[in-house]
Amino acid sequence: MNTFLNTVNREPVPAQDTFESVNPATGEAIGRVPMSSDAQVDEAVAAARAAQPAWAALGDAARSEALLRVADVLKEHAEPLARWITREQGKPLGGVGPDQIPGSRFEMWGCEVWTRVPASLSLAPEVVFEDATRRDTMHRQPYGVIAAVAPWNWPLLIAIWQIVPALKAGNTVVIKPSEYTSIGTLEMVRLMAQVLPPGVLNSVSGDGRVGACLTAHDDIDKILFTGSTATGARISAAAAQKLTPATMELGGNDAAIVLPDADPKVIAMKLFWGAFLNMGQTCACAKRLYVPDALHDAIVDELRAIALAMPMGDGLALGVAIGPIQNRAQYDKVVALVEDARANGATIECGGAPRDGAGYFYPVTLVTGLSDGARLVDEEQFGPVLPIIRYRDVDDAVARANRLSVGLGASVWSSDIGKAEAVAARIRAGTVWINQHGAIHPMVPFGGTGHSGWGVEFGTEGLKAMTQPHVISVMKT
């Protein structure tokens, strides 16, 4: 079994202690990962600090050229990296059916796209005020050294979302991958670093202790974190002690509202994948489905038929649409939430029982007969389970959607776009999709409200978030 290494200053870095990475489809160990020491975190941050002035001084055009070389490397190595994603995270390797539902190959395509798009963007100086006596121009300066902490659900793609805009803006980066999905990220960073100057991109792997050491480091200028609200709160508390700015993309419990004029047959497939993409292990998946009484049974029937037709198994096998839950802790949470719903009188429309055998497999599960206040409704399940909840009228549905403290995404489903837009405007969430859910784009800002975090990613606004305003004011007379 191979032991994989961190990259610091473009050099491979082992560690005295290691831990196993496990395939969630089989339960088998597939490699060993370094458990970085505090001293190694110091070394990675020091390398990033030493490299940052020269990287910033290269200028915008040269950094764009470097990132386009990175995109070429990601494209060249997309297949082996995609296989690491499937082996570590569990999502199927390829798409399924005519819609080609995104899997690991899609994730690697996304890594390339989300590298090329930021590489093409620029933040030109902006004259914010001018009159006969003065001219004020706002420039953008990098923060310096960025600490990035990536999650396990889209381990390489979200790492790219953090790394590439930070580098484009002139920062250098130290990234810690999730301890559950480290190998693919370490390999991707190794490949990227080969076409970047030494020290510009560095990795440290390990558990939450390593992440805490990195994000609390005295020489970190900004933190980028994607993960749970609970972990984000701990990182934010530590950052506040040092007044370190942060972008936080935290948990969600996205509400999807079906309006009475929707056609269940038309929306069912998109609604299904809006909830169950990546086995429901996506922050912006639909996690609460509100339907009017008149459409309830038809929606359930359509979604159940799709769920029962979706093959579940090892993502490396051909034709698999649904993979395993990524880790035991998340698997146990999903099981507990379904059992709580069952014990409180809910109806399990399909699924609802773990599959025998190896791996963390749990079937797509539809649950009815619940209302707000039930654990499965109020807690983010982050797995292949969807509560379907009846509502009385649209005002009732909007109030229910806005009831929780999180607000990452939401969606409205209707045959009347105007009606849907009017409802969407009343929902408190960073993004509200209409007749789609979770449809992100590299040019469209994405971020949450409330306990789903703060700050945005993607596009020009996301690039601005990697910089600090720097105003130069000139007196003319």
TrEMBL record:
Regions crossing the membrane: none
GO molecular function (one): oxidoreductase activity, acting on the aldehyde or oxo group of donors, NAD or NADP as acceptor
Keywords on record: Oxidoreductase
Pfam families assigned: Aldedh
Keyword Phosphoprotein tagged: no
Aldehyde dehydrogenase domain ranges (all copies): 16-470
Active site, renumbered: E249
Gene3D superfamilies: Aldehyde Dehydrogenase, Chain A, domain 1 (3.40.605.10), Aldehyde Dehydrogenase, Chain A, domain 2 (3.40.309.10)
Family: Belongs to the aldehyde dehydrogenase family.
PANTHER family cross-referenced by the UniProt entry: ALDEHYDE DEHYDROGENASE-RELATED
Protein name: Aldehyde dehydrogenase family protein
Organism: Paraburkholderia acidisoli
